Amino acid sequence: MSRRSSRPRQTSATSTRIAPVTPASPCPCGLSATYADCCGRLHAGAAAPTCEALMRSRYAAFVVQDAAYLLRTWHPDTRPPVIDFDPAMRWVRLEILATTDGSAFHTTGTVTFRAHYTDNGRPDSLHEQSRFVRHEGAWVYSAAVFAD
User: Fold this and answer.
1) What is the β-pairing status of strands 108-119 and 138-146?
2) Beta bridge partners of 112
3) Cβ contacts of residue 80 below 8 Å, gap of 6+?
4) Which of 40, 49, 52, 127 has a CA 20 to 30 Å removed from the CA of 98?
5) Is 71 helix (H, G, I), strand (E, B) or coil?
6) What is the DSSP letter of 26?
């Protein structure tokens, strides 16, 4: 996911408070494990075995606002200098629609997904095909093509 906000930060009385993600919470990426056993392991330093696992962990990093992880897993040639989280956005659900390559036996891969969110309480979604490459032995996010 490459969502970075360039619009001015606004807060809204209509935005709802979301319970913080804890190690025992269901993982925000949508798999059946807890955050600690799923994406939390990757956020703590474990390597993503596939580009889909990296995609899921990057989505979860947006949910928990882990900018350091997002920057660490972004290819240096396309990485922004900072991540600007929009306080009015709440990521609510991830759908993986398709993957190509991206296993331990590949050097590139793609993940097509739809990430559902609310912006100032209004539901919307981001439909994207993310490209991943191996960089210094690890999967990193490289670029995206927005599907709609």
Assistant:
1) unpaired
2) 98, 129
3) 4, 71, 74
4) 40
5) helix
6) B
Which residues are within 8 A (CB) of 74 and not within 5 positions of it... i.e. 6 or more apart? 80, 140, 141
3-state secondary structure of 124: strand
Residue in the block written with tokens 């474990």: 46
For residue 88 the two structure tokens come to 């009015």
- Element (DSSP H or E) covering residue 139: strand 138-146
Whether 132 and 140 have beta carbons less than 8 Å apart is answered as: yes
pTM value is: 0.87
Tokens of 118: 């609310």
**Strand arrangement, sheet containing 108-119:** 89-101, 108-119, 122-135, 138-146
Which residue type is seen at 147? A
Distances (CA, A) of 145 to 30, 69, 114, 125, 133: 22, 21, 12, 14, 15
Please choose, from the candidates 67, 59, 73, 66, the residue with its C-alpha nearest in 3D space to the C-alpha of residue 113: 59
Q: Is the dihedral of CA 64, 68, 73, 75 positive or negative?
A: positive
Q: Among 95, 43, 45, which residue's Cα sits nearest to residue 70?
A: 43
